[in-house]
Structures
1.
Amino acid sequence: MFDLTGKVAVVTGASRGIGRAISEMLARQGALVALTDVLGDAVGQAAHEVVASGGKAEGYAMDVTDTAGVQATIGKILERHSRVDILVNNAGIVRDNVALRLKREDWDVVLNVNLSGTFTCSQAVLRAMMRQRGGRIINISSVVGQMGNAGQSNYAASKAGIIGFSKSLARELAVRGITVNVVAPGLIDTDMTRGLPESVRNEWASKVPIGRLGTADDVASAVCFLATDEASYISGQVLAVNGAMYT
Ligand code: NAP
């Protein structure tokens, strides 16, 4: 498909789900992928499996809420490879409840991981990308950030925030050859949605005009496209991968 040979990519929340699929697909296109995640063992194993299937990959423990840790890990990757061409801010969590009953700590942690984590990791690669005069930042939002969802005001706010952040960053970095885009998945079959009650999953699935849940690979394909040289004139955009659930 597209050739990412020679590119160095960093993916957050990469040990499972969508982040794992993105890492595997970037590696299949030829990129060297630094898989990062909170748990070092899990991400080390994921990286090992990418290498076993013929890709170039390394695993790093990195919690996106730990600013010093993010800077140290990105520093290590830069020391080793001298560049970061692609950053995929994928790490994300949910802590659902109706706003009336939402605990302050559940508001804070969702905003911290999803939105502030995206800022922290982006800032950590910016100097290198500016020096390289090029780069791709791809942030994973959600259909919920575009349309809202009862019981997910914290998650929706974090995902809508990612869109505003990305559009601003795209304008700041355009002259440096760095593009910043958003991929907004709909209902994707991963652990995150497998945790929903069957009735909720079925109700959501019935609202998808394409007639099925998305796969992690559906999202990964969109990310990989935005990571290529061919996507160099696309920036500040939101690419929805939602089976026409929200248009
Ligand atoms: P997932 O299966 O729950 O995986 C999320 C990954 O993020 C896990 O590996 C998790 O690590 C990691 N993570 C959590 N907190 C972190 C932190 N502080 N620092 C670094 N990594 C952290 O979720 P997913 O479904 O693949 O979702 C991936 C992204 O897509 C998220 O941003 C999510 O909001 C977005 N999204 C998903 C859907 C969907 O339907 N699944 C729809 C729209 C958007 P642990 O394994 O240690 O928990």
2.
Amino acid sequence: MSVRDDIKTVLISEEQIRTRSEELGKQITEDYAREGKAPYAVALLRGSVPFLADIIKYIDLDIQYDFMDVTSYAGTRTTGDIKILKDLDTSVVGKDILLVEDIVDSGFTIEAVKKLLFRKEAASVKVVTLLDKPSRRKVDVTPEYVGFEIEDLFVVGYGMDYNQHYRCLPYIAVLKDEIYE
Ligand code: IMP
Ligand code: MG
């Protein structure tokens, strides 16, 4: 049995992701190069890993990267309140951070991580996300670089999971209705 049997539709193909990652990588390269800076990528585990691996290939700068794993208490606590499951291994003091996310939904996660990075004395923080669901936003936060805007749909694949499954799919998909039940 293949996990592919659980898919209803492929929303964004592997080729579309590759093309868009290349465009974003070029744009990021130009924006940072213009200011004579190189971004320090902070990727949020675990969903952003495939996208990070793609995008860094197209950023023609001396980019370095580190990882963080967080959970937001969206809805239950004040914004900016997150639990750090894995902190950065390196200092971000004075660095120009490029926060790499798989998907921005309510916005609680990136808003809280941005605050945290500024508290850790990052010089600047910009966000690159593969997907954005602006219709779901609960806090006023806008990613600087967006791969694709999508409707209010729960998606899987390309790093994104449903109960930890389906991360390995090479495209972004919507599951059959019965799977979500
Ligand atoms: P936010 O804090 O509400 O913006 O949530 C962002 C996080 O929720 C993402 O990093 C994902 O881990 C998860 N998430 C939001 N929407 C989806 C989805 O459609 N599929 C899989 N994970 C999602
Ligand atoms: Mg995530």
